[in-house]
Amino acid sequence: MDSANWGAKVVARSRVFKPAGLGPFPVALILHGCGGKTPFLETYAEVAVKAGYAAVVLDSFKPRGMSTIDGKLFVCTLMTLHGAKRAADIFGTLAWLKTQSWAQADQVFLAGWSHGAWTIMDAYAAGTSAPTATGLPDADPVALRRQVKGALLVYPYAAYPSMTSRRGWGPGAPPVWSVLGQKDGVVGWRFPKKALDRLTADGVKVDLKLYADATHAFDDDKANDPRAIYRPDLFQEVQDYFAAALKATAPPRPLFS
């Protein structure tokens, strides 16, 4: 299957949010964690809409015939659907956006949580091997760098087999906004920080919010992991942080007389 057709299949099982009007709009792609698409991500989609973006909350499981139980049993345990393979959803959706009149396909912002952030990171780190890594024969690393203007990485998985610390992202990487919690008992914070430090050393612009008392999934009020402690105050802070990142990378608005 080619990228655009795979993207159409993914988006058909996902949810699209749009501002009022016909567009075209810049687009935020929102990628869930290994437990599947959860309601709190739609709050972030609404933040994007308020910032003038369309938002697509991608579902990486349904197009593959997977359930949230499959995610917890097999994806969260690294048995299947590693970040590089799941990056097919990014390449596919970017190709699909080019066919949509409401979308500014060259003005995309990527936002990922946990496994979703790993997916974004591996999409870049895979480099010219992206077609092999994703399984899409036409996955286009050049288009990724041309279309995407920024990325938000929230408590990303960055230990092995994540590739960023070893490979970096190569030339043309977008600016990165990131959120880590020093009480994260799922992905930790040292491996993600190491990956972000690699990007900084390579010349990527990286902004970091490091919360001393935040756990994994602190912004998910329905997280059922005992290691996750919901923090509504930090949830609001990250919404504001996301809005600021979107504003910083938004295309200039046309002037009307």
UniProtKB/TrEMBL annotation:
Keywords: Hydrolase
Gene3D superfamilies per the UniProt record, alphabetical: alpha/beta hydrolase
Domain Dienelactone hydrolase: 15-242
GO MF annotations in UniProt: carboxylic ester hydrolase activity
SUPFAM superfamilies: alpha/beta-Hydrolases
Keyword Hydrolase belongs to the record: yes
Protein's UniProt keywords contain Hydrolase: yes
PANTHER family xref list: DIENELACTONE HYDROLASE DOMAIN-CONTAINING PROTEIN-RELATED, POLYKETIDE TRANSFERASE AF380
Protein name: Dienelactone hydrolase
Lineage: Bacteria, Pseudomonadati, Pseudomonadota, Alphaproteobacteria, Caulobacterales
